[in-house]
Specification:
By secondary structure, this protein is an alpha+beta fold. The chain is built from 10 helices and 12 strands. The chain has a 5-stranded antiparallel sheet with strand order 10-9-8-11-12. Helix 1 links the parallel strand 1 and strand 2.
Length: about 300
């Protein structure tokens, strides 16, 4: 691959609840980009990130931040103002995908099925059932299954953690119907949906710990599902990527209920900056198709741009 960029700054860390995962993603990406022949500087992003970028003068930014500020359009807007090409999605797509309720509105317009849900305050969600159980409660603008609860049939009340003093995940929560069945995910690389992975875990559900702790989950790829469901997931993932206006690498998460009548596959959300940790899904899918991790990271750098 010919290179239009030479010096790359990897933004990692930040100050969201996903800081530790971002540090791991950034370290892995930095190592891979050095192997691919780039001059790499790794920057632990803080509120002086613009000053740090000015000092390092990169040709492009590899955005390995996760969660608020780094994944929701904020740092993307900063990079637009600074005129530095960056990886992954732009300002609008990042902001839309991070806001789960607005993303669901986009999905509805694009005829991409997602579980029915509603936005309420966390106080209202904690005060009593706002939807017939089983249902899921999640922060409206967080990623990586942070602060997600499943309220099951027979539960007397929603989780008390929603009104706890340690809650720092915003006052708006999304309450949506729980879809039973199997957890599937599809990565999209540009205009290509890669493959379908099934995720299983011995924990209560595929939460933050299951995603990032060693042994927390098992990835089966390609997923052992009917061929028509595979094609359905690949199609929906690419359409979700395109409907939100994503670019670069993204990953769409699905629930598949093989026992349901009618619609069996529901899109839960699109992650515009999938993890690049040792347990991450997107690098596994790329590797299955013969794309090494350094090649994947190099492709993302060469795909970097400003929206203008």
């Amino acid at each position: 691959m010919s290179k239009k960029f030479k010096r790359v700054a990897v933004l990692k860390g930040g100050w969201s609840p996903e800081r530790e995962v971002s540090l791991s993603s950034g370290a892995a990406a930095g190592k891979a980009l050095r192997e691919a022949g780039y001059d790499v500087v790794e920057i632990d992003a803080d509120r002086m990130v613009a000053t740090k970028l000015e000092a390092e003068k990169p040709d492009a930014v590899f955005n390995a931040l996760h969660g608020q500020w780094g994944e929701d359009g904020c740092v993307q807007g900063l990079l637009e103002v600074m005129g530095i090409p960056y990886t992954h999605s732009g300002v609008l797509a990042s902001s839309l995908a991070m806001d789960k309720q607005r993303a669901k509105a986009v999905f509805e317009d694009a005829k991409i099925p997602s579980p029915p849900g509603t936005i309420v305050t966390r106080k209202d969600a904690a005060g009593g059932h706002v939807m017939k159980p089983p249902y899921v409660v999640k922060p409206n603008a967080q990623g990586s299954s942070v602060g997600v609860f499943i309220v099951r049939e027979g539960d007397n009340r929603p989780p008390s953690e929603l009104t706890g003093e340690k809650w720092t995940l915003g006052d708006e929560v999304l309450v949506e119907k729980f879809i039973p069945g199997r957890e599937l995910t599809v990565s999209v690389m540009g205009d290509r949906a890669l493959c379908v992975t099934e995720i299983t875990t011995a924990l209560a559900f595929y939460d933050y710990e299951a995603k990032y702790a060693a042994g927390g989950s098992k990835h089966v790829l390609p997923a052992e599902i009917p061929a028509d469901i595979t094609e359905r997931c690949l199609d929906l993932a690419l359409r979700a990527h395109q409907s939100l206006g994503c670019r670069g690498l993204s990953r769409a998460d699905f629930r598949y209920d093989p026992d349901a009548e009618g619609e069996q596959v529901y899109c839960l959300e699109v992650n515009t900056q999938p993890g690049l940790t040792p347990t991450s899904l997107s690098p596994e899918q790329a590797a299955m198709l013969g794309i090494t991790f350094p090649e994947l990271c190099a492709w993302m750098v060469e795909d970097a741009s400003c929206q203008r």
